[in-house]
Amino acid sequence: MGLVVQKYGGSSVADAEGIKRVARRIVDTKKGGHQVVVVVSAMGDTTDELIDLAEQVSPIPAGREFDMLLTAGERISMALLAMAIKNLGHEAQSFTGSQAGVITDSVHNKARIIDVTPGRIRTALDEGNIAIVAGFQGVSQDKKDITTLGRGGSDTTAVALAAALDAEVCEIYTDVDGVFTADPRVVKKARKMEWIAFEDMLELASSGSKVLLHRCVEYARRYNIPIHVRSSFSGLPGTWVSNEPPAGHRPLQRSMPGSRSSGSGSGSTAGSTQGDKSMEQAIISGVSHDTSEAKITVVGVPDKPGEAATIFRAIADAEINIDMVVQNVSAAATGLTDISFTLPKSEGHKAMEALTKAQAVIAFDSLRYDDQIGKISLVGAGMKTNPGVTATFFEALSNAGVNIELISTSEIRISVVTRVDDVKPAVQAVHSAFGLDSDSDEAVVYGGTGR
Amino acid sequence: MGLVVQKYGGSSVADAEGIKRVARRIVDTKKGGHQVVVVVSAMGDTTDELIDLAEQVSPIPAGREFDMLLTAGERISMALLAMAIKNLGHEAQSFTGSQAGVITDSVHNKARIIDVTPGRIRTALDEGNIAIVAGFQGVSQDKKDITTLGRGGSDTTAVALAAALDAEVCEIYTDVDGVFTADPRVVKKARKMEWIAFEDMLELASSGSKVLLHRCVEYARRYNIPIHVRSSFSGLPGTWVSNEPPAGHRPLQRSMPGSRSSGSGSGSTAGSTQGDKSMEQAIISGVSHDTSEAKITVVGVPDKPGEAATIFRAIADAEINIDMVVQNVSAAATGLTDISFTLPKSEGHKAMEALTKAQAVIAFDSLRYDDQIGKISLVGAGMKTNPGVTATFFEALSNAGVNIELISTSEIRISVVTRVDDVKPAVQAVHSAFGLDSDSDEAVVYGGTGR
């Protein structure tokens, strides 16, 4: 009987009823013979309410105190959850991040986990308790100050504890049924995946999928902790995220137009067992999109060594994370080139300021800021051995009348930037072109026909 | 330049405006050249809201988890207060009870402080910070669990820190102007005391005065920490509670009818400097009342050794604190006696249950429960050398037509139990009889005429 780490998000414990429902689910797991460690987020809007309060007393809330404030949220939910479990006749103890041994660096508001020393959790489990742990928080190694882990922190807490406790699985309970081939709000025919590989999930997470954050998946992959993303409302099996598909896994049935003309399927049927590894691994996991970014173009940069470096050093010094970077071949006549990059809209103002300051040194012509953009990404580990994928992707966009502004690729991902209004039709077109739609007539995989 | 500990209650930090007002007051103290440690309670109704939530998920909230839950309240207020201070351009750091070194026993919901090791507070002060500490909470010595100190816990935290840090004064900021000679809601002519001795304050606190709790005063007396109780709203000087009156202290002007007939004052005027110690110390500090208790009478107890002990063992085993105990002389004919005692109404049901169970062993006749009672107490260290006080007290009650049901005395206090409806006229009569009314024509103290 193994150890299970379960994580419940704020929407699952939004009120007393939610907490009681979650308590019953936890007790069911315990009754199933498992040791259970539960990581819980703050209730519903608690964190937002605390942020509001902070802004009322101080326009620029300070790091250390802001963390102290925010961690009150999980303290409330974890204590209530422990009480609700005890009320069902089972023993439970709650632990703050610090008590659970979540040791971090000292970067307030976005600390990183350095070590996990869950001695108290282990003791509590050995004594027959269900352990409830505050997500999103830890204690700094040097100063012993309370820290928070930033966005997606609770998921990361759960995976980190699962790794430190050598758990069988880390179950992430959320308000959706799992990971889908595209955002179901955009693509009605999007399908829930039964399984997705870590590396595909990493690409989806970094290109707009909100279900799991990159950081949490990265941690899970490093320590090889299978994640099971599932709904705390429906109780249905969700999506497994791991290195290898679970036993008995059958890849999604899909239709795949392998040629330029759409509609004509080719290849073998899914679920056949030809012993071909590429048959087991879906070529395309899904289509993600992201409309939270803006694009900055630095116009007329002298095309000589070091200029790009100076630009991105200015951005880095302002502590801004950028995403895609594209530089075109310079025009021979002028010796000038344009450099474009994307970044979160929320950082746009800061970046423009930093670049304007740097203009004296870099001597570019001008800056252009554009926040009416969207990014569409196609992700799948299978694509690295399937050159047809790129062609099909661009054809689908072209057929949908979508103009492409920037392109960036990794081994298992293609991303394009378009006008923001084109995002929805683009995602739908690509999802359909790769046979991911759920009511497809043909059940065909691309795998057998690749290369 | 000394160290000042300030404590702000929940009503002082009920909202963002309150927090900002308190922050300005703290900064003013700091600017005055003091090192400042601030103990803060949870905002306004936060604690009650958390208790509500707990009751929604579990009818009997568990000790350890309940403490974990409640301590979230101070975590919020202390972090916000630190932010507000930083926003005024001063450095501040907040500390949980655990971080501040408040070490307690393991009795959840009403832990007692065992030790205070404020190393981190000292460091923060030495680095120029204002230290903000969560009131009401600590960490248990053996299990390292979060504990709460129960009622009045924040005041006790403040005094304990003041003692551990060797502070000049512990300022308790509240929503009243200080300690009054009686509850101003009952006695319009009640006066604010400039100073009151620890021992008188202890008696007032244990007999119904709500301004300071017994426990906090006891702690302050043991470590000889002067307390200054004052309003966080008015900023006026409040009441000093200490061993000796502050330099320049003038006792309250008061009229004191020394004889049975009321109205005729006798004795010397207040403020005269005859070098008589009893002149400096007011005979009567004030009149307190308490309507939160009930009375239980055990009727027909066999008057033989050990019966009373058995009764109070049964009560003690149920962890019920009792207040007054009265046993009458037994009737010679029956050899039976009645034992009455008072206790908090909230414990009444539990006590009746415990006694009913004990009836088989103790063989009393019956139990009577009465919650329509009130207690009036007259407190003053001077009374132990002034035998006329008791007589004047009972005459005042008699003149007001108040019937007395129980009497209990200490060296510096007389308490009586009456019908609850008699409490208000009784307090007014006694307050007036001892010349405590503020607009008295005569300025006379009893001190010079005693014995």
Show the helix and strand layout.
Two copies of one chain form a homodimer.
Chain A: E1 3-8, H1 16-31, E2 35-40, H2 46-57, H3 63-70, H4 72-86, E3 92-95, E4 102-104, E5 113-116, H5 119-126, E6 130-134, E7 137-140, E8 146-148, H6 153-164, E9 169-174, E10 195-197, H7 198-206, H8 214-222, E11 227-231, E12 239-242, H9 277-280, E13 286-290, E14 293-302, H10 307-317, E15 325-327, E16 336-344, H11 348-362, E17 366-370, E18 373-379, H12 388-399, E19 406-410, E20 413-419, H13 423-433
Parallel strand pairs in A: 1-2, 1-9, 2-6, 3-6, 4-7, 9-11, 10-12
Antiparallel strand pairs in A: 4-5, 7-8, 11-12, 13-18, 14-16, 14-17, 15-16, 18-20, 19-20
Helix pairs in contact in A: 1-4, 6-8, 7-8, 10-11, 12-13
Domain module count of chain A = 2
Sheet of most strands of chain A: 8 strands, mixed
- Looking at the overall shape, the CATH architecture of the largest domain in chain A is 2-Layer Sandwich
CATH superfamily of the largest domain in chain A: VC0802-like
Structural class of chain A: alpha/beta
Number of strands of chain A: 20
CATH topology grouping of the largest domain in chain A: VC0802-like
Strand order of the largest sheet of chain A: 3-6-2-1-9-11-12-10
Shape of chain A: globular
Query: Distance between the terminal alpha carbons of chain A, to the nearest Å?
Result: 45 Å
Mean pLDDT of chain A: 86
Radius of gyration of chain A: 24 Å
Biggest chain pair contact, residues each? A-B, 41 and 41 residues
Work out the strand percent of chain A: 15-25%
Instruction: Specify the oligomeric state.
Output: homodimer
Percent helix of chain A:
25-40%
